[in-house]
Amino acid sequence: MKLNIALLAGDGIGPEVIDQAVKVSNAIAKKFNHQINWVKALTGAAAIDAVGDPYPEETHQICLNADAILFGAIGDPRYDNDPSAKVRPEQGLLKMRKKLGLFANVRPTFVFPSLLNKSPLKKDIIEGTDLVFLRELTGGIYFGERGRLDNGETAYDTCTYTRSEVKRIAEKGFNLAMKRSKKLCCVDKANVLESSRLWRETVQSMEKDYPEVTVSYEFVDAVAMRLVQWPKSYDVLITENLFGDILTDEASVISGSMGLMPSASVGLETSLYEPIHGSYPQAAGKDIANPLATILSAAMMFEDAFKLKEEAKLIRDVVNLSLEQLIVTEDLSEGKKSFSTSEVGSWLSNEILK
Ligand code: IPM
Ligand code: MN
After folding, report:
1. Calpha distance 149→131 (Å, rounded)
2. Structural domain boundaries enclosing 199
3. Global pTM?
């Protein structure tokens, strides 16, 4: 099969972890006889430095012409402490999501048997956790009207959703629930927010089309608590953009390291695969960052975008093997010998080709 993949390394540790995902994907291609055509493009601070725009039109065209997009991370401390910066790397990510229509962000949380002791949560609480957040990604407060009034003394951001925006993410949620344990949780703040009441009303009106799915409606503050108290009680959760951003960071703690969880952002035309962690600038260039979240994002890409299940499974299998054999970066090595980012990538590629 010919796979045409846009490669957006981005900032910070992005290029290093992306390199490992490329190594692993190339090993898969060699083993299963696929031809991957990687097309590199600029995003984030790297793109601001080069052309003054964190998501240049050229990058957009490359993404549109690709079968799938593999993405590293965006963010640079040069912009974080400068509230007056006119352009910011993160704007590139938001522009990319919006222009590519990537409305459904699929963020799984699961545990690796060999890492149960790595989580700050007790083993019996997290053992067996396997849930998926569907975070709405192109609406809500991220994209609503915002601004300043009163000579800059007042600021506002607005959260807006249309019924059709809620419907299309909820449809994905119901369909995913049908493929899993037929349980769907709609996370909102309907006791306070009008936009949440629209979410709840819309999801409720869809229940009759999915009679086998049991839907629960929970407030976001309660979910934040229950997620770490009883994560096993959840399966598929749907939620709006900002709640999803916050809860998925919280959920990543369950697996033991931020460097482990992959994600997919699915749109009408294309889909993008990226680790849920950020650009971790403190580690950039040091060859120490955990590449597994990006490598597992590549596995999601093989499975979802190209329907190559066996290839995806092999990636997951060798990742599990590396964890069992402690071929891991320093975030997981527990004071024992740790391996560099590139060593982990090379070890996995070699295992694939064995
Ligand atoms: C994420 C990130 C982004 C977000 C930032 C970098 C804009 O935190 O993908 O979760 O808030 O969506
Ligand atoms: Mn986030």
Report:
1. 42
2. 111-243
3. 0.94
Residues 80 and 115 in one domain: no
Ligand 1: residues within 6 Å at CB? 74-75, 90, 93, 245
Tell me the backbone φ, ψ of residue 261, rounded to 5 degrees: -95, 125
CA-nearest residue, atom 6 of ligand 1: 90
Identify whether 261 is part of a domain: no
Alpha carbon of 250 to ligand 2 centroid (Å): 10
Number of domains comprising the chain: 2
Confidence at residue 256, expressed as pLDDT on a 0 to 100 scale: 83
Marked catalytic residue, from 80, 157, 221, 317: 221
Q: Is the dihedral of CA 159, 278, 135, 238 positive or negative?
A: negative
Residue with tokens 């998925």: 248
State pLDDT tens for residues 98-112.
999 999 999 999 999
Residue 249 among the catalytic residues: yes
| Ligand 1, atom 11: closest residue by C-alpha | 245
How would you classify the pairing of strands 262-266 and 130-136? unpaired
How far, in Å, CA of 259 to CA of 253, rounded?
Answer: 10
Backbone CA torsion sign across 224, 226, 232, 235: negative
- Those residues whose C-beta lies under 8 Å from the C-beta of residue 42, and which sit 6 or more positions away, are 8, 50, 51, 56, 58, 59
Q: Side-chain half-sphere of 213: how many Cα atoms within 13 Å?
A: 28
What local confidence, expressed as pLDDT, does residue 80 receive? Answer: 83
- Per-residue pLDDT of 57-99, as tens digits, reads 999 999 999 999 999 999 999 988 887 888 999 999 999 999 9
| Pair 352, 289 in one domain | yes
CATH number for 287: 3.40.718.10
Annotated catalytic residue, options 245, 273, 280, 331: 245
The pLDDT value given to residue 334: 85
Q: What are the tens digits of pLDDT across the range 190-244?
A: 999 999 999 999 999 999 999 999 999 999 999 999 999 999 999 999 999 999 9
Residue ranges of E strands in the chain: 2-10, 35-40, 68-73, 104-110, 130-136, 146-149, 154-157, 183-188, 214-219, 236-239, 262-266, 271-275
Same domain? For 234 and 277 the reply is no
Nearest to 69 by CA among 78, 79, 59, 77: 59
Check: CB of residue 289 under 8 Å from CB of residue 283: yes
